Task: inverse folding
DNA sequence: GGCATATTGTGAAATTTGTATCAACATAAA
DNA sequence: TTTATGTTGATACAAATTTCACAATATGCC
């Protein structure tokens, strides 16, 4: 097997790899075994060059006649993105959004597990919500440490965000996906992704207005 | 008032403007009237230069002694992002995610209105869901045209995505925010934003793994 | 006034991200 | 065998975005 060098893939490439793989899963299901860059590009709404560039970066080679072998490519993307034992994830804040994300996500990926949820509402805690055990937030550290959890999704009320984030880092969380409307700051070595629905809608509104 | 030239602001700048405004609302609530670039930068997790650059692009000037006048800045961002009469938005797909987004969003912005939702489940249609009237999808075109709706949020099952997108464009939708896991292609002049939770999580997992 | 300090605004450089071009090569058909 | 076609891989180029560096200027203090 080719020696892979993917020490520092561009962020956008990583995102596209995730999406390539999802599309390729579908292609496999349809019985396809090989795929050309222009086919994949069309399905992803990209240029063929960009597809080939991404695959070049992860050191995968196709053949001029048959294109890329889907199964090999999926496996390689898996070795790059997934960790062997899988990653555990927690959801903090089991309001509408937290529950929606949880039930949407559960079982979607082989190597990513939502193993716990947290809330400060006693109505929700100490029971199964959307298929996941929901604990009171004051047990964050305990559960994170016991289960060696590294990734947290924040879907809680704005007021509590900063305090919870601090506790998460203290407990050993290394990556945060922040869906609250409160921008966070994290120390070096901690990874943060932020996404806000309102911002996306306002951007669209701006574009449509033109 | 300064003549504004914002024909074609960079996409990233538009996103940040939306976020500046949200933060500035809070600052106003706390009684602040002026703000320096480095203060805003710190709250947003950016560099002061980037803040000043963005404000330069929208033609807003501050003073060396007092920084920026928050109220003026908020107003200016509003004139750039918002349209005077506001923009109407529909949600297509009232599953968990659709309902969560709707109830999260309702009332969040003065100039953005979720005016209708659609689903193909008769259990959900012709009633108020999360504060918004929910119609059957076969009434998409009718409602969109009657209400002059330009923006749609897609939170439906993957299978139906392509067909629904086609209908939306046919009915006159100009901007789509796609939360399904199916990449879309749209003709020129139509704006598309795509976001996928799984991709964000996989990216985080990749980063944390390093 | 004169000096130290702090802030804005901006041209230019650097970085990141995406695109165009083309040589090399495999296949199929003449 | 030769030619036409189509694809990959790679280099060069272009566009978008961020950061650097610093002039210009306002304020407060001596």
Result:
């Amino acid at each position: 097997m080719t020696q892979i060098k993917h020490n520092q893939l561009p962020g956008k490439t990583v995102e596209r790899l995730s999406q390539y793989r999802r599309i390729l899963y579908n292609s496999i299901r349809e019985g396809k075994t090989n795929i050309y860059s222009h086919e994949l590009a069309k399905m992803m709404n990209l240029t063929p060059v960009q597809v080939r560039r991404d695959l070049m970066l992860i050191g995968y080679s196709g053949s001029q006649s048959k294109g890329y072998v889907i199964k090999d490519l999926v496996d390689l993307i898996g070795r790059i993105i997934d960790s062997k034992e899988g990653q555990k994830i927690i959801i903090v804040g089991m309001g509408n959004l937290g529950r929606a994300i949880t039930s949407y996500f559960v079982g979607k990926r082989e190597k990513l597990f939502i193993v716990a949820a947290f809330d400060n509402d006693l109505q929700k805690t100490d029971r199964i919500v959307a298929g996941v055990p929901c604990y009171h937030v004051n047990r964050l550290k305990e559960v994170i440490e016991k289960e060696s959890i590294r990734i947290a999704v924040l879907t809680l009320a704005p007021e509590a965000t900063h305090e919870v984030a601090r506790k998460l880092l203290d407990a050993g969380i290394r990556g945060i996906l922040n869906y609250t409307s409160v921008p966070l700051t994290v120390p070096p070595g901690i990874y943060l992704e932020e996404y806000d629905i309102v911002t996306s809608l306002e951007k669209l509104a701006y574009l449509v207005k033109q």
Observations:
- Residues 1-6 of chain B have pLDDT under 50 and may be disordered.
- The CA atoms of residues 18 and 81 of chain B lie 8 Å apart.
- Chain B has two domains: 11-80, 87-199.
